[in-house]
Amino acid sequence: MNKKHFSAFISLALFLAASAPVFAAGGGALETADINIRDTAAIQRGAKLFVNYCLSCHSASYMRYNRLAEDLELDEDLVMQNLVFADVKIGETMDIAMEPEAAADWFGKTPPDLSLIARSRGADWLYTYLKTFYQDENGHWNNLVLPNAAMPHVMWQLQGIQKPIYATHDGHDVIDHLTLAKPGLQSPEEYGETVHDLVTFLEYLSEPAKLKRKNVGVWVLLFLTLFTLIAYLLKAEYWRDVH
Known about the structure:
The chain is α+β, with helices and mostly antiparallel strands and 243 residues long. 53% of the residues lie in helices and 14% in strands. Helix 2 (40-53) crosses helix 9 and helix 3 crosses helix 4.
């Protein structure tokens, strides 16, 4: 690859990286979720939100309840009492009873498994998506990030009902922003924290080993630092006689 082609490649890569949030949000930049995967309390709160608002339609078939209890530092009995609402055992996966064919009939498509949704979509996308539901002029739910989404706004009672405010651009009416037409049970700030907790859980769900991997990584770095120091001192001792 010559310098000209390399320069063009770098320019294209930088353009796509800078433009990705705009394209993903259907014309508006994604909000930053600012996820901290080490925030166990946020993951615990997110797990409760997940089983209450998501698990009736969306499965998480790669996660077992006992693994959830271990990672989130929860007693298994506590998990069974507060996070399990079906007739399942602690060692089973977070599946749903709804048949895919029935789901397709009811919703137009089968709700996806959410085990890896944070890895495929990204935390910022999920955070913005869950905050940008609105009702159109026909009273139907829609979304700024994913227009014509089949999913209704399951947490509308918490957030309230948002309505679109339109502006004219290039002779076309487009949504400029959303306004809260009917307040929910939570303030916008409180709802933002609720969504943050849910997305934190989805981020954990997409790669549970990340918690242990990061902890192991710290010890590996400490070992390498100590080993480097010992190796340097050993080298200095051997080379002292040579000099």
